[in-house]
Amino acid sequence: MEIDLGVAQRAGGIDMAINDQAEKIGQIAFGGSPRARAAISQCVKCEKQVTHEQFTDALSIKEYGISGLCQSCQDEIFGV
Ligand SMILES: [Zn+2]
C-alpha cells in the first residue's frame, strides 16, 4: 500500500498549526504558573505529562483547567 506523503505532511502541518495556536491561546488565557503549565499539558504537582484520555469525566478535565492537576493527583487531593 502506497502512502501519500504529501497528504500526510499537509495533515501534520495543520495539526502543528492547531497545536501552536492552542499553546498561544493557553499562554494568553492562563498567564502565569500554575496555569501556564496546564497549557503545556503537564501536571503542576507530579509534573507528569497529562493526556485527555487519563481523565475519568468532564468534571476532572474542567478541574485540570482550573488547578492544573492530573487525574491521579486530583484523586489524591480530593480523596476520590
Ligand atoms: Zn499529577
How do the strands and helices of this protein lay out in sequence?
Blueprint (H helix, E strand, L loop, with lengths): L4 H26 L4 H5 L18 H10 L3 H8 L2
The protein binds zinc ion.
Zinc ion (ZN) binds next to α4.
* Global Rg: 16 Å
Order of helices and strands: HHHH
Helix content: 55-70%
- What is the β-strand count? 0
Total number of helices = 4
Span from first to last CA? Answer: 48 Å
Q: Hetero groups bound? A: zinc ion
- The average pLDDT value, as a whole number, equals 74
Counted up, domains total 1
Specify the overall morphology: elongated
Uncertain segments are none
The share of residues in extended strands comes to under 5%
Major sheet summary line: none
User: Helix- and strand-based class?
Assistant: mainly alpha
Written overview of the protein:
The structure is a single chain. This protein has 80 residues and is mostly helical. Helix content is 61%, strand content 0%. It has 4 helices and no strands. The longest helix is centred in the N-terminal third of the chain and has 26 residues. It binds zinc ion. The site of zinc ion has 8 residues, from helix 4.
Output the keywords.
single chain; 80 residues; mainly alpha; 4 helices; elongated; binds zinc ion
